[in-house]
Amino acid sequence: MDRGPDLLPALLGVLGAGAAYLPLEPSLPADRLAYMIEEAGARTVLADAGTAALLPDGVALRVDGPAAGPAGPLPEVHPDALAYVIFTSGSTGRPKGVGVSHRAIVNRLRWMQQTFPLTHADRVVQKTPIGFDVSVWELFWPLMAGAGLVVARPDGHKDSAYLASLITSQRITTLHFVPSMLAVFLEEPLLPETMRRVICSGEALGADLAGRFLERLPQTELHNLYGPTEAAVDVSWHACAPGEPSVPIGGPITNTRMEVLDARGERVPIGTPGELCLGGVQLARGYVNRPALTAERFVPDPYGPPGSRLYRTGDVARWLPGGEVEYLGRSDFQVKIRGQRVELGEIEAVLAAQPEVRAAVVTLRQERLVGYVVLDPDSEIDGAALAVRLRGRLPEHMVPGAWVVLESLPVTANGKLDRAALPAPGEQERERYVPPRDPFEARLAVLWEETLGVRAVSVHDDFFALGGHSLLALRLTMRLRKELGRDVALSSVLTAPTVALLAAELRRPQDNDGAPERIVPLRPAGDRTPIFLFHALGGQVFRYLPLTRHLGADQPVYAIQAAGLASGEEPHATLEEMVDDYVAHLLKIRPHGPYVLGGFCIGGNIALESARRLRAMGEQVPLVVLFYSDADEPVLRASLEDDAVLLMHALAGGPVQVELEDLHRMDPEERLLTVIDAAARADTLQPDTADLNQARRFVKVFRANAHAVGHYRHDPYDGDVLLFSPAENGAAPGDMGWSSVITGRLRISPILGDRFTVLYEPLVADAAAELRSSIDHGLTDG
Question: I need a surface site. Which of 127, 202, 452, 663 has the fewest CB within 10 A?
Answer without folding.
Answer: 452
